[in-house]
Every structure is written in structure tokens, then in C-alpha cells.
């Protein structure tokens, strides 16, 4: 193994491992079909949002909006909050994060640990009953109170696309040495899936980029409903989602995401977050359509550690999803 000296933690982000899942393949009787997982939990902040945060900050610096000491206000369901709190230390700005009750307590703790200021919303938007809309409304309120502050707006900022086209998707091509037949990507802001689509389009290959959305999400024509898990799905149509179209969309229930996150952990010793469970559930449902020789990539946006009190807790699942996984 070649050792490497890094001159700052910012150099560690990206170049995450692409790992084959042979035990998962065998458990589902796959022959002549290979499944690989892109493990974004290996980023220093624990998720793919390290890439997004770095790209958003770079864009704001280059435009002159972000300078040392600038107050930055952003909405996040969790991972981007951690990533931007880290960037605030590295780039010397003041980070304020608007969160809602679905955010994991450990995630909130990490944002505080990095010096971020939390602004929780306690009620969903009264008109739509949507937490994301409530968070965005709170962001606008804070910007009115602090006119010197800026918002990077992960929901419309195209810098997110570049983070995942020249980063995530390009790394997948490089690791495989060729184009996979399918890539499954959980969607929320849709920055990751948009970046993957951009890279596939630029290379002119036939890779299908499949968006994995939550039941109850309004992205890509979905019908609004209750969503309990952070990390995938959205209660509003993001501006980024209007700028690209996945090959197809799969909608996954919360309990299916929970079951398949746990199944992957117990099969491959890779315990993903909620969105990773949704991605595995989508792939599982699609297995009958796979053909011999196909190579499939699933992007696992984060790891399961922050979810030990939610999707990996039988008590939480029983109380919130009304399913007894112990029976």
C-alpha cells in the first residue's frame, strides 16, 4: 500500500472507495452480475455532502460573496450541516444551520462540536405541512434579520453538480475502467444525481442514472405525503431537480429503507444511513430486470453510525413506523 502525506484535512475529501458486494450478490442469487458500492462515508465528515459543501464554498469565494468572517445561513436535514460546519473552520466563516426535529441528535451534536450555530424549527410549514419549506422560510427570516449574511442555497446552486460530476461519478468511471450499466442515487436536493447525469452525458455512455426517492416526496412528479427519514426525498421541487432528468425514478418506503439498510449491514458489514437503505431497496426491487454481464453501482451517501437511535433502533422503528422488527 502506498502511503501519502496530506497537508490539511481538506485534501482527504473525495477519492472514496468503490467496493464490490459479493456476499450481497450471493445472498440474492446473482450470477454474472456485479454490484459495487461507492462508500461516501469515507469522506472526513462522513458523507457525500463534504463534496457539496466544498463546491458551494469555493463558488461563493470565487464570486466574492464569501469572505473571512461572513455569516452563512443554510438549511440542512443533517449531513450538509456537518460538512459546512467543518468548512467554516477551514475557510474562517460563521456558520448558522437551520434544522428540523427529524435531524439525528448525533448530527446536531457534531454541528455544535464544529462550532456551528443551530436554529431549529419546531413546526412544519402551516400551508404544506412540510419541514423543508419551514426550514427555508426560517433561512429567509434569518437573512432579513442579518442583511450582511449570505445563503449558499444547496437546492439551486449548480456548483453541487460539478462536485459530483468531476468527483463522484468520474471516480466511479476511473475505478471500474469503463461505464457501469446502472447507477442508483438517492435524491433530496438532487445535486448528486444531477452531477452523475452530467458526467454520463458528457462521456456519451449508456449508463442509466436511477433516482431513488422517498414515498411522500414531490420530486420528479411524486405525491406529497409524510416522510420520517432524513437524507432522501423532499417536500418541495428543488430548482436543481428542474435542470436534469434521471433515466427513471424509484420510490421507497421508510420501512423498506430500514430493512435493507440493516440487511446490507448484516450481509456485507457495511451499515449505511437511511438513504443507503433506500438505494439497496430500489436495487433489490429491480433485480428481475438485470441481465447477465451488468455492472451496477449504488452510491451510499453516508454511514449508519448517526442512525443507531433511529433506523437501527427497534424501539424507534416500532414507535415511528409501527413495525415490530423483533417479532
UniProtKB/TrEMBL annotation:
Its cofactor is pyridoxal 5'-phosphate. One of its GO terms (molecular function) is transferase activity, transferring alkyl or aryl (other than methyl) groups. Transmembrane segments: none annotated. Pfam families: PALP. InterPro entries: Cys_Synth/Cystath_Beta-Synth (IPR050214), P-phosphate_BS (IPR001216), TrpB-like_PALP (IPR001926), TrpB-like_PALP_sf (IPR036052). GO terms for biological process: cysteine biosynthetic process from serine. Residues 11-301 form the Tryptophan synthase beta chain-like PALP domain. This is Cysteine synthase.
Amino acid at each position: 500500500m502506498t502511503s501519502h502525506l496530506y497537508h490539511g484535512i481538506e485534501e482527504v475529501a473525495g477519492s472514496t472507495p468503490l467496493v464490490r458486494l459479493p456476499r450481497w450478490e450471493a445472498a440474492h442469487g446473482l450470477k454474472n452480475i456485479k454490484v459495487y458500492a461507492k462508500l461516501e462515508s469515507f469522506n472526513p465528515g462522513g458523507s457525500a455532502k463534504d463534496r457539496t459543501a466544498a463546491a458551494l464554498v469555493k463558488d461563493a469565494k470565487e464570486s466574492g460573496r464569501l469572505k473571512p468572517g461572513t455569516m452563512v445561513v443554510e438549511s440542512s436535514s443533517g449531513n450538509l450541516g456537518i460538512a459546512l460546519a467543518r468548512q467554516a473552520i477551514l475557510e474562517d466563516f460563521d456558520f448558522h444551520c437551520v434544522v428540523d426535529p427529524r435531524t439525528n441528535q448525533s448530527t446536531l451534536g457534531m454541528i455544535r462540536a464544529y462550532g456551528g450555530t443551530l436554529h431549529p424549527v419546531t413546526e412544519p410549514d402551516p400551508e404544506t405541512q412540510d419541514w423543508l419549506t419551514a426550514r427555508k422560510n426560517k433561512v429567509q427570516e434569518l437573512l432579513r434579520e442579518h442583511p450582511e449574511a449570505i445563503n449558499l442555497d444547496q437546492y439551486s446552486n449548480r456548483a453541487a453538480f460539478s462536485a459530483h460530476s468531476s468527483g463522484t461519478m468520474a471516480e466511479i468511471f476511473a475505478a471500474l475502467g469503463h461505464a457501469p450499466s446502472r447507477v442508483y442515487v438517492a435524491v433530496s436536493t438532487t445535486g448528486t444525481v444531477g452531477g452523475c447525469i452530467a458526467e454520463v452525458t458528457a462521456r456519451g455512455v449508456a449508463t442509466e442514472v436511477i433516482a431513488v426517492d422517498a414515498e411522500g416526496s414531490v420530486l420528479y412528479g411524486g405525491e406529497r405525503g409524510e416522510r420520517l427519514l432524513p437524507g432522501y426525498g423532499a417536500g418541495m421541487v428543488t430548482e436543481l431537480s428542474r435542470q436534469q432528468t434521471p433515466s427513471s425514478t424509484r420510490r421507497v418506503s421508510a420501512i423498506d429503507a430500514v430493512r435493507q439498510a440493516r440487511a446490507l449491514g448484516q450481509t456485507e458489514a457495511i451499515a449505511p444511513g437511511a438513504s443507503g437503505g433506500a438505494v439497496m431497496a430500489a436495487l433489490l426491487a429491480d433485480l428481475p430486470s438485470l441481465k447477465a454481464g451488468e455492472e451496477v453501482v449504488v452510491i451510499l451517501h453516508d454511514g449508519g453510525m448517526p442512525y443507531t437511535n433511529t433506523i437501527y433502533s427497534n424501539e424507534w422503528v416500532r414507535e415511528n413506523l409501527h413495525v415490530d422488527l423483533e417479532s
